[in-house]
Amino acid sequence: MTRSPHRRDRARARRTLIAWLFCSPFLFFFLLFGLWPVLASLLMSFTDITSRDLRTPFNVGFVGLQNYLTLFSDDTFVRSVLNTLYFVVVGIPLTMIVSLAIAVALNSGITRLKAVFRVGYFAPVVTSIIAIAVVWRYMYQDDGLFNAALAVLGIDGPDWLNDPAWAMPALIIMAVWRNFGIPMVIFLAGLQAIPTELHEAASVDGAGKWRSFRSITLPLLRPTTLVVAVLLSIAYLQFFEEPFVMTGGGPLDSTTSIGYYAYDQFGFGLYGIASAASYVLVLVIALLSFLQFRLFRSRS
Amino acid sequence: MARKTGLAALAGGVLVALALTGCGRADSTGGDVKAGAAIDDSPAIGTINVWAMGTEGELLPDLVAEFEEQNPDADVKVTAVPWQDYAKKIETAVASGSTPDATMIGSSDLASFVAGGGLDPVPDELVDDSSFFAGAQSSTEIDGATYAVPWYVETRVLFYRADLAKAAGVAAPTTWDEFDEFAKALQGEGAEWGFSSATGAPYTWQGVLPYMWQAGAQLTDDGLKDFTFDTPEALEGLERYQSLFTSGVASQNGPVNLGEIEPQFVSGEVGSFISGPWEMGLLTQAGGEDFLANVGLAPIPAGPDANTSYIGGSHFSVFKDAKNRDGAWKLVRWLSDAGTQEAWFELSGDLPAVQSAWEGDALASDPNLAVFGEQLQNAQNAPAVTSWTQVGALVDSEAEKVAKGVSTPEDALAAIQSAAEKIGTGE
Which pLDDT tens digit goes with each residue over B222-264? Predict the structure, then answer.
C-alpha cells in the first residue's frame, strides 16, 4: 500500500468518470427515446390531453386520477380487463404445459430429425400474424376445418368467431399454437441442464418415469419455469394482434383486450385516457410478475 | 440504502410536480376561423410536397406531370403513404410542425384532423363550392369554416345477382317493401341470404346511418351543436336495419374484413349487398371477367323520405405549417378543375367530385357509372363533427347488439343518444 488514500480516491474518481463517458452514448439515446416517452405518457395520463392539443401539448389541464376513474366506470374497459385476465389465466398454463410436453418429447424420445421438429415447432412464432389470421379465420368458419374434424367425433362445433362464448377460446387456441415455440426452446435448455445421473439414480431406486419427472425434473426446472411464466405473462397481457386481425374486438366486445381498448382510444384522439389504460396494463404486468417471482421462488 | 431510495423518490416526485405545474389550459378565446390570404392566378413555383394514400398515391405522379407542364417552375413530389398508417403520420407531422405542403384525407376523417389544428382553411374564392356534389362539399365544412377541397367521391349502391333476379322474375327494388320481396325472391332462387350487411365490424355505421336518413332523420341540430339521435325517424331507420335480420333476409354474422363478401356473392350464397365502386375490381378478381355479366347495379331502395346513400371519398387539404402554401393551393385548385377530374377518372377509376366532369364522354357512356352518378345526387356523409370517430364506433357497437338480437332498437338508440351527448360534438 504505497499509494496514499487521497491518490486512491482520485484514481477511482477518474475511472468512474471514464466509465460514465463510455456509457454516455447509450444513456443519451436511452433517456431520450426510452425513458422520456415513458415519463411523458405517464404524465399524459394525469391530464385531459386530446388530439386537439397536438400543436400545444403543454396547454393541457391537470386532472389527477380522473382518467383512471373514468376508465373503471366504462363498461367496455372493465370488460376488456376481464377478457385480458381470462386470456392470461387460461392461455399461460396451457402454453406452458404444451411447450413443456413437447420439450420433454424432443429431449428424450425423438432422436432422429430433431432439427426438423425444432424448426417445425418454431415456425408459427415467426410467421406473419396477417397470414395466420387469414388461414385461421377460414378454418374457424362454421363449416370450416375445425368443425369438420369435430363432426367426425360426433360433436356439433360452435360458430367459433361469431359466438361470444367461443370467440375467446378460439383465440386462445390460436395463441397457444403460435407461441409455444419460444417457451419450448427455453424448457429444452432447462431440461438439458438437469444431470442425467439423477434420473439414473431414481430409476435404480425403482421410480417410474412419471414419478421421476414429478420429483426431479419439475423442481429443478423452477428457475426456467419462472422465466417462461414471466415472459409469457408480459406477452399475453399485451394481447392485441389476435383480436385486431381476427375479430375486431367482437363479437359483442368478447375479445376486446386492454391493448385493443387503448388502441381504440388513441384512434378517438383521447390520449389522456389511452395513456391511463396503458398504465393500468403496466401495473397489472408488474403485479403478475411480482406474484410469479414469489410463486416460483426456488427454495434452496 | 433506504435513505438513497427515499431521496430518489423525493426527487422524482418534485420533478413530476414541476412538470405538471408547467401544464395548464389557457382560456381559449375560440373566435371565428379566418381563411388565409387569397391565391392569385400566377403559375405555381417551387417544390410542392404532397402525401397520397393507396392506389392514388401510386397514380398521382402521372397526373401531376400535366400540372408541372403548365407550371414549369413547380416541382410536385408525391409520397405514397399506406392507408393504415396515414392518420398517425398526419398527427405526428402536425405535432412536430414539420408537415408536407398538402395531403389527401379520407372524407370521414377530416373532422378529427381539423381538431388537431394543423389544417389551413380553404382560401376564399379558390374553388366554386357549388361545383361539387352537395354531400361531398358539406363534409368539408367544419366549425363554420371549410378545410378541404373534395377530390374524388364514392357512394354506395345496391349490387345484386342479375341472373338470380331474372330467374325469379323480379326487377331491382325501389322502395323498402319492394326490397323485402326482392330479397326473398333471390332466396327462393337458391341464395342462402338475400342480402348481406355489416353487423358490428368497424364502419358498420356507414351501412346503418343511411336507413335513418332514408326515414328522414337528421342526426344533429342545424348548428351541429347537439346530436339528435332520439327521434322517431332515426328509430324507424334502426328498426328497418333490425328487420333485415329478424325477417331472415340477412345473416346476423356480417363480414368483418374486406374481401369476405365477394366470394360469397360469386358462389350465390349471398344475393345482394350494398357497397361502392371498388367492388367492380374485387368482383372481377373473385369471379373473373365473365362473372360481371351476372352483376346488376341499382340505386338503393328509398325509405319513407328518400333513397339517401352514404357518400365518401377523399379530399385535399393544405397544412398550416406548409412551406409552399401558395403552390399547394394552386395544385389543389388545378385538381378540382373539370378537365383534370375527367383525366383522373380515366387514370384511376375514381369518381369525380365535380358534377360537370360527369358530362364528359368517359363517364357518360358507362351504364354502371350512371347508377353511381344518379345515387350521388342523393347521398350524405356522417355529421361533420370532430368527435365523429368516437360516436361512429359507438353506433357500430350498438348496431351490433341490435343485429344480434341482444338489444332492441329503442334501447340501442337511447344508449347512442346518451353516450353521444356525453361525448359531445366538440363544437
Answer: 888 899 999 999 999 999 999 999 999 999 998 887 788 999 9
B1 lies within 8 A of chain A by CB: no
Residue B1 maps to a domain: no
DSSP B190-232: T-SBSBB--SSSTTTHHHHHHHHHHTT--SB-TTS-SB---SH
Pairing of strands B102-106, B46-53: parallel
Q: Domain of B414?
A: 157-310+384-423
* CA–CA distance, B374 with B76 (Å, rounded to integer): 34
Distance from CA of B385 to the nearest CA of A (A): 12
Q: Do B112 and A269 touch (CB under 8 A)?
A: yes
Q: Which of A282-291, B22-31, B240-249 has the highest mean pLDDT?
A: B240-249
Q: Considering only CB atoms, which chain A residues are within 8 Å of B388? A: none
pLDDT in the model for residue A293: 86
CB proximity list for B34: less than 8 A, separation 6 or greater:
B121
Helix B232-246 to helix B388-403 angle, to the nearest 10 degrees?
50
Q: Strands B149-155 and B351-352, how do they pair?
A: antiparallel
Q: Which of A31, A162, A266 to mutate to test the interface with B (most CBs of B within 10 A)?
A: A162
A73-295: what CATH class?
Answer: mainly alpha
Predicted TM-score (pTM) of this structure: 0.85
B312 in helix, strand or coil? Answer: strand
Of A51 and A274, which is predicted with more confidence? A274
For residue range B335-358, list pLDDT tens digits in order: 999 999 999 998 888 899 999 999
Count structural domains, chain B: 2
Q: How far from chain centre, in Å, is Cα B143?
A: 18
User: Complex ipTM above 0.85?
Assistant: no
> How far is it between the farthest Cα atoms of chain A?
88
d(C-alpha A156, C-alpha B355), whole Å: 55
Q: Are residues B317 and B251 in the same domain?
A: no
A to B CB pairs, distance under 8 Å: 83
User: Is residue A113 pLDDT above 80, yes or no?
Assistant: no
* CATH number of the domain encompassing residue B259: 3.40.190.10
pLDDT at A3: 61
Contacts of B256 in chain A (CB under 8 A): 247-248, 250
Rounded to 5 degrees, φ, ψ at B79 are -110, 125
More confident site: A113 or A131: A131
What is the rounded distance in angstroms from the CA atom of residue A278 to the CA atom of residue A299?
Answer: 34
Where do we find the cell 359483442?
A252
Nearest-CA distance from A287 to chain B in Å? 20
pLDDT of B28 > 60? The answer is no
How far apart are the C-alpha atoms of A111 and B172, rounded to whole Å? 68
pLDDT at A202 over 90: no
CA distance A202 to A197: 8
